[in-house]
Amino acid sequence: MANWNPWHGCRKYSEGCQNCYVYWIDQAHGKNAAQIFLNKDFDLPMRRKRDRSYVISPGSIVYTCFSSDFFLEDADPWRERAWEMMRWRQDLFFLMITKRITRLQQCLPPDWGEGYSNVHICCTVENQRQAQIRLPVYQKAPIRHKSIICSPLLGPIDLSPYLGDWVEEVVAAGESGEEARPCHYDWVLDLRRQCVEKQVPFHFMQTGARLVKDGKCYRIARRYQHSQAKAAGIDFTPPGKKSPFERTENFFDIQTESE
Questions:
Q1: 9/169 Cα distance (integer angstroms)
Q2: CA 94, CA 170: separation in Å to the nearest integer?
Q3: pLDDT band at 246, cuts 50/70/90?
Q4: What pTM value is reported for the model?
Q5: Domain range summary for the chain, segments of one domain joined by +
Q6: What is the pLDDT, as a whole number, of residue 255?
Q7: CB of 185 within 8 A of CB of 153?
Q8: Please, is 182 exposed, middle or buried when counting C-beta atoms within 10 Å of its C-beta (0-12, 13-18, 19+)?
Q9: Which among 78, 127, 144, 174 is most buried, taking Cβ atoms within 10 Å?
């Protein structure tokens, strides 16, 4: 795996952004996360070692733009070059998460067609309101690989009108950080039920810092949030299907959570 953040900084966009990790980390270092700038590693996918091999090895999953949003308006002047690098590096699999799926059509490269086969664009929905705004657009969008990310999960979400073979996986996760809002285990279980009924893979990524179960709110330390979610044993993979990408302990933490 590799991390590629072509630009840094973001602008809060919806309810899920309230405790954005980018803002928390930048504030801790005396920076303003609302200032958007190109990172020095902008061209990382194209960089080579002395022996002329690529710095990012062929076959790697590249977690893309996790310190911002790939479809951020401020990044419009830089995005075409980023697409060019993805198009050139067909030997890599680029995975990104966005809340700005409604901007997709105006941000695509001319040769996109039905999507690049090596690009997986995940759509975040944190509550029912955002699901109803984003998922109708996402469902029709020309993207080869799609997953729905319910993180930070802020309320019950009915995904059933949208679930189908086009969804490669649904991921659920609570919010982390000192100011984390509660995640109710019943919400997670209901998402799982919907996925089982529609035969869509489901993954409970992490509990979040405050998990409400059986009427009690549990404060869960950061180091246990993934392991406790895994211990719940509620992941679901339909027969003949598999997770669309490798899972790592830090995957999705850095998109929607504060430390």
A1: 27
A2: 18
A3: low
A4: 0.91
A5: 2-256
A6: 42
A7: no
A8: middle
A9: 174
